[in-house]
Amino acid sequence: MDMHGYQEYKAQSINTMTQGELLLLLYDELIKRLTRAEIALQKQDFPLFEQSVIRSREILRYLDDTLDPQYPISRDLHRLYDFFSYELSRVQVGRNAKVLAEVKPRLTELRDAFRQAQKAGGV
After folding, report:
1. 13: closest CA among 5, 76, 79?
2. pLDDT tens digits, the chain, 123 residues: what are they?
3. What is the DSSP string of 47-87?
4. How many whole angstroms separate alpha carbon 55 and alpha carbon 103?
5. Dihedral, CA atoms, 26, 30, 36, 41, nearest 10 degrees?
6. CA-to-CA separations, 113 to 12, 33, 63, 121, 122, in angstroms, rounded
7. Cα 102 to Cα 15: distance, rounded to the nearest angstrom
8. Using CA atoms, how far apart are residues 47 and 44, in angstroms rounded to an integer?
9. Long-range contact list for 24-31, CB < 8 A, 24+ apart?
10. CA-CA distance, 92 to 12, in Å (whole number)?
């Protein structure tokens, strides 16, 4: 397979996405990384676990950095992202599957709320 052509296709498809689609893509990637962290922790694959949690925290940081402070919801989302980042730091340091199991469904609910908002035309 021509990797250069694939990379161009991937870049083009990302460049043509709406902001709502990009947001959902980030949330989907976040949930995927958290799932990967869960599986890696169960298998005691600690390097993959660390990598997955670190990437999840980076995605949260990016989501937080891109908030527009002119909207009141941004303040609430900032608090949520801080909370989730803190919880994921606890997951990472303690290899805490219980906290991970609590955080993932909450982030999934948040993603689903954004998906509903996009379908309704609000994102």
Report:
1. 5
2. 567 776 666 566 666 778 888 899 999 999 999 999 999 999 999 999 999 999 999 999 999 999 999 999 999 999 999 999 999 999 999 999 999 999 999 999 999 999 998 888 766
3. HHHHHHHHHHHHHHHHHHHT--TTSHHHHHHHHHHHHHHHH
4. 15
5. 160
6. 27, 19, 15, 12, 11
7. 34
8. 9
9. 24/111, 24/114, 24/115, 24/118, 26/59, 26/62, 26/63, 27/107, 27/110, 27/111, 27/114, 28/111, 29/59, 30/56, 30/59, 30/60, 30/107, 30/111, 31/104, 31/107, 31/108, 31/111
10. 34
Structure tokens, 81: 């992202």
Q: Which residue has the tokens 């498809």?
A: 13
Residue with tokens 């940081």: 61
Q: List the one residue out of 30, 27, 32, 39 whose CA is nearest residue 57.
A: 30
